[in-house]
């Protein structure tokens, strides 16, 4: 369970939000909404532990994430609006290296299966620089298939995706929630997922 209590965050001298509290339980999904500059990405990065809040606390399964450090990161995966992909590496190499950096071991066959499910069959060994923006996004999202994290934190996961890829992401989200996973995300595109709750930043 993710518990956020009385959270406040600023950018420079500007207070983005304050007094923010919510609880996310297993099997739940929460969409963060708000205008540009309202602090959506800052909130997600704070939930990841990348930013320290001005006030309040974030607890994962009853423990403050700032004290948990690596134990928390092992149970959480963050995908930002940038793909974090190396142009000179292939889709396969990018996926295997990202898994290694997250502390896991991914075999070539496991990585190939994930990329093919993401619609990248025949492109697994191509340099990322020759892939379209949508294909590069699929490479980044393939990390969700090879990671056992209970908590997904996703910043604009549907960027550059076509209709077929969006439907695939919706299916992956449904599967994760059915396994009692948890998701916090932002998006400017419609996402059809049952039971979704919404938190608006003003």
Notes on the protein architecture:
With 202 residues, the protein is an alpha/beta fold. Strand 1 and strand 2 (14-24) form a beta hairpin. It is 31% helix and 27% strand. A five-stranded parallel beta sheet has the order 6-7-8-3-9, sandwiched between helices. The model has no long low-confidence stretch (mean pLDDT 92). Helix 4 (91-101) packs across helix 5 (108-117).
Topology:
Blueprint: E1 2-11, E2 14-24, E3 29-34, H1 40-48, E4 55-60, E5 63-64, H2 65-68, H3 70-73, E6 76-79, H4 91-101, H5 108-117, H6 133-141, E7 151-155, H7 163-178, E8 182-186, E9 197-201
Parallel strand pairs: 3-8, 3-9, 6-7, 7-8
Antiparallel strand pairs: 1-2, 1-4, 4-5
Helix pairs in contact: 4-5
H-E string: EEEHEEHHEHHHEHEE
The CATH topology of the largest domain is given as Rossmann fold
Which structural category do the helix and sheet elements fall into?
Answer: alpha/beta
Mean of pLDDT: 92
Number of distinct beta strands: 9
- Count of DSSP helices? 7
What's the number of domains? 2
Query: At the fourth CATH level, what is the homologous superfamily of the largest domain?
Result: P-loop containing nucleotide triphosphate hydrolases
Question: Fraction of residues in helices?
Answer: 25-40%
Poorly predicted parts: none
